[in-house]
Amino acid sequence: MLDTPKKVKFRRLIESTKEDHDILQPYLAEENKHIADHVLGLLKGQAGNPGPLLVDMYEHGLQCATHAERDGADEETIVCALLHDLGHFIAPHAHGAFIAEILKPYISSVNYNVLRNHTAFQGHYFFHHIGMDRNLRDKWKDEAWYDAAVTFTGKWDQAAFDPDFTPEPLEHFEPMVRRIFARQPFLYENAIKD
């Protein structure tokens, strides 16, 4: 976090004043300029630990984004592909929701829902091996984002575990990530259906 010589006076938000927020709001605006740096740092932190997989989550993200780009996906979707498993080590059982919430103010509701639910859609390719319903994704078949989620997992995500595939390097995708986080954030809380 950035430091600043000016400090607020409140110890509880209920005690805050306009003067406090005159100090706080520019600081928060400056801090928000570094979101892409933090996200890219988390992504880089996934390198080097493949576990039983043939590629680590860093490589997996690069492969997924490369597949999406080569398939003609738009920049926002490519960034979603790159970052979709960012929470894999932090929130393994909720990693889709983790990245969906980070990107929510910057992406479409379609991509938000694809990210949020990508594990259930990816499960179509392996749930039957672990005693789960591989057709879990079908509960969303009437949603506007269903086909995008099928494409995301079927063409890009599930195909991105190949040690012989050479993806584009992170430097190729970094400007895209920075452009997404440079967007004016928007909120659409009421537009998203659970």
Q: What value does the Rg take, in angstroms?
A: 19 Å
Strand fraction equals under 5%
Which outline best applies? globular
- Average pLDDT value? 92
CATH C-level class is Mainly Alpha
Low-confidence stretches at least 5 residues in length (pLDDT < 50)?
A: 190-194
Structural class: mainly alpha
Distance between the termini: 33 Å
- The CATH homology group name: Hypothetical protein af1432
Helical percent range?
A: 40-55%
Number of helices: 8
**Helix and strand run:** HHHHHHHH
Q: How many domain units?
A: 1
As for the CATH topology, it is Hypothetical protein af1432
Main pleated sheet: none
What is the tally of beta strands?
A: 0
**What is the correct CATH architecture?**
Orthogonal Bundle
What does this structure look like?
There is one protein chain. This protein has helices at residues 18-32, 35-44, 57-70, 75-83, 95-103, 109-122, 146-157, 170-181. Helix 3 packs across helix 7. The chain has one domain: Hypothetical protein af1432. The two termini are 33 Å apart. It is mainly α. It is 49% helix and 0% strand. The model is unreliable at 190-194 (pLDDT under 50).
